[in-house]
Design goal:
Blueprint (H helix, E strand, L loop, with lengths): L2 H19 L11 H15 L12 H20 L6 H10 L5 H27 L2 H11 L15 H21 L2 H17 L7 H10 L6 H15 L1 H19 L9 H27 L10 H18 L3 H15 L24 H20 L3 H19 L8 H15 L9 H17 L9 H14 L4 E4 L8 H10 L12 E2 L2 H7 L2 E8 L7 E6 L2 E13 L5 E8 L6
Parallel strand pairs: 1-2, 1-3
Antiparallel strand pairs: 3-6, 4-5, 5-6
Helix pairs in contact: 1-5, 1-6, 2-3, 2-4, 2-20, 5-6, 5-7, 5-17, 6-17, 7-8, 7-9, 7-16, 7-17, 8-13, 9-16, 12-13, 12-14, 15-16, 15-17, 16-17
Length: about 575
Amino acid sequence: MRRGSIVGAVLALAAAALVLALQPIGRPWWHWADPDGAYVGSSLNILIGNHTNYLDHPGLPTQDVLAIGHGVEFLVGKATGTYDDRQSFVDGKMLDLDDARALYRGWAVSLFLAATLLVYAVASRLLGHWTWGLAASLVFLVAPGLATISFLLRPDSILSALCLVVGYLTVTAFEHRSPLRYTAAAGLLGLAMTVKLTAVGMALPLVVAAAWKPPGRHWFREMRSTVSVRARRHALWLVPTAIVWIALCWIFNRERLPIVQTDDQRSILLTGATFIGGYALFAVVVERLRIPWADRIFRVFFAWLMLAFAAGLAIPASLVLDDGVQMLVAMKETFTGGRVNEDVEPFSEFTLDSFQRYPLSVTAVVLVLGAAAGAIGLAQRRYWPFLLGLGTLALGVMAAARYSYDYYYAPAFAVAIPGALWLLSRRGARAVPLYVWLPVLLLFGLSISHFERFQGGGGEDVNGPAQALADELLQPGEVILVPHYYFPVEDVRFDSLVDGFVDHVPEYPYRFLSRPQTAAERGFTPAYYVTSDDDLAPGRSAIDIGGYGPFVVEKLPTRWGPDQEYGVARILESPSFDG
C-alpha cells in the first residue's frame, strides 16, 4: 500500500473519531433503549438458547456478534470463577445492561469506523486517487442523521457503506464482465439485507448490469480458476476462519433443534428452493436448446447469482438456524406490508419543504449531483456513475416512501457520493483540486457545528425525580403507570424495549411501567399514574392507560419533575386484565 493511501485512511479515521468524540457515548443504556435494549436483550436470550423476536431490520448479524461477544465473556468468566452458569450470567447482564455497554457500543463504534474506511476505499478506487477517497469519507461523515446514531446499534452507517460496496462490485463487474465480482455483489447484497432490508434498493443496478453485460460464455471456468488461485493465496486465514465459524454454528445450534418449526418457515424455504431450482432448470434447457429471446431471461449465470444472494442471506442465519429461517419469514412479511410496514401510508411523511432545511438540504445537493452524474455518464458512455445513480434513485425513493427520517436517506447519500465527486473532477487531474476541497471541508466543518446533543431521550432530569417520587409514594408490590413507552424513566424503557421483545427476563424490580399488562403478569398493583400535569383533570376521572381502561384516578396536588411539569394521580380502580 502506498504511503499516501495510508495517510488518507488515517485522516479519514481521525475525522470519524472526531465525530464520535462529539457524541454522548458514555450515557446509560436506557437513553437509547430503542434499539440498543432490544438488540442486547435478544442477543443474551440467544446465548441461553431462546429465540430472538426482534427481526424488524432484521438485524440478525448484530445479534450474532453480540451473542458471540457475550459467550466469550462468559467463558472467560467461568474459567476465572466469576460466573457459574450461562443463566446466571445472562440474568446478571440483563439486570445491569450498562455492564455490557463496552461490548455493544464498542461494536457500534467499530462499524462506524469500518463504514468510513469502506467509503474511503471505494471512492479511491473509482476516482483513481486516495485524496478522492478522503474527500468522499468526509462527505460521508455528514450524511443525514448518521453522526447522532454513530455509537448506537442502528445499522444505518454500515448499511450505507455496504450499499456503496455492492455498487462498486456491480460497476466493476460490469466494466470487466467479471463473474466473480457479480457473484460477490449478489452475495454481499444478501448479507446487507440481513443488516437492514433497505439494501434491496441496490438490486436494481445489479440486475440492470448483469442483464446488460453478463460475463462471457465460459464464465464458470474463469471464475473457478480465479477462486482457486485466490483461495490458495489466502488459505492461511480463510481455513481457520471457516473452522471457527463452523464450530460456532455447532455450539449455538446444538440446542436449537428442530430448525424448521412452523408452516410459514416451511413455506418460505420450499418457495425459495422451488423458485431458484425451477429457474435454474429452465435456464439449462434454454441454453442447451438455444431458444431465441428466452436466453435473455433464463440464464444459468442468473441462477448462479440467485444462489450467491441466498448464500449471503444464509451466512448470519447459519449461527442460529431456527431464527435464521424465521428471519426470512419476517423479511417476507415486511416486504408485503406487515411488521414495521404495517399501516404505513407510502410517502405520507415526505415533504419537499424538509429538503430546504439542514441536514436534508445538504442531502438534496449530493443526491442531485449523483443523479446528474448518472445522466452525464450515460451520455458519455461512462456507465459506473449511471449504475450508481440507479441505486441512489431506488434507495432515495424507498426512504421517502416510509417515514422520511433523516438517516433513512443515508444509504442513497453514500451511493451518490462517488458520482457527485466525479462530476466535480477535472480532466487530467488525479488528485482532488482545491475548488473541491473548499466546499468539502466547509461542509464537514458546518456539519460538526450542527451536531445535536441527544434530545428527548437523555432523561436524567426526569429519571432522578421519578425515583425520588417512587421512594415517597410506593409500598412494596406497587408500581406507577406512565402514558407511553418512551417516558424517560429507566424502568419504562426496560419494560417496553427489552422485556417486551424477549422470551426471558429475570425478576426485575419495576417501579414504573407503561404497559398495564406487565403489572398484571408480574403481580404488581398499579397505584399511581404520572403524566403532564395539564393532562390530568381535577378530581376524579376515568382514563385509558396503555390501551386498557377505564382506570378511575384522582388527581393529587403533588407536582414534580423539571419545572414541576408532571402531575400525579392515585389509581382508585383498575380494569380487569386477563393474562
